[in-house]
Amino acid sequence: xxxxxxxxxxxxxxxxxxxxxxxxxxxxxxxxxxxxxxxxxxxxxxxxxxxxxxxxxxxxxxxxxxxxxxxxxxxxxxxxxxxxxxxxxxxxxxxxxxxxxxxxxxxxxxxxxxxxxxxxxxxxxxxxxxxxxxxxxxxxxxxxxxxxxxxxxxxxxxxxxxxxxxxxxxxxxxxxxxxx
Length: 180
Prior knowledge:
It is a single chain. The chain is an alpha+beta fold. Helices cover 36% and strands 14% of the residues. The radius of gyration is 34 Å and the shape is rod-shaped.
């Protein structure tokens, strides 16, 4: 083989390799047609659902002494909860009412039920299905203040210091149960 022929052969081979690489590179940028077969014909309903763990939604609403009406400053918590529930799957909402220790057990149980019912009614007004909200009364049995308000004098409606200290016990806790 003469040197001129060898150079021409090498030049043509290099040009051919460059052309093939250029063709493959340009073709890689183009959108590929959809695949055919069983996996490609699977509908969205048949595809396995993605499991997405959502953080639990909760709210705690405080009440005035011996009252079951929602305080204006507390409704924003329920508004946020209701907004968070939009488009979210949940089995039920538990609205659990509590009372402080001032007063009789029977009265405090009824008061905590009225508080839970007030929260339930507010959430229904925000578009939450009433059938999914369970209002429950716990009375004074689940105090969160513990011994913090111990030895503050007589347990009566006239003891302002004790009433102020027990504020956190007068609440409704709302918890959204996860979807099954």
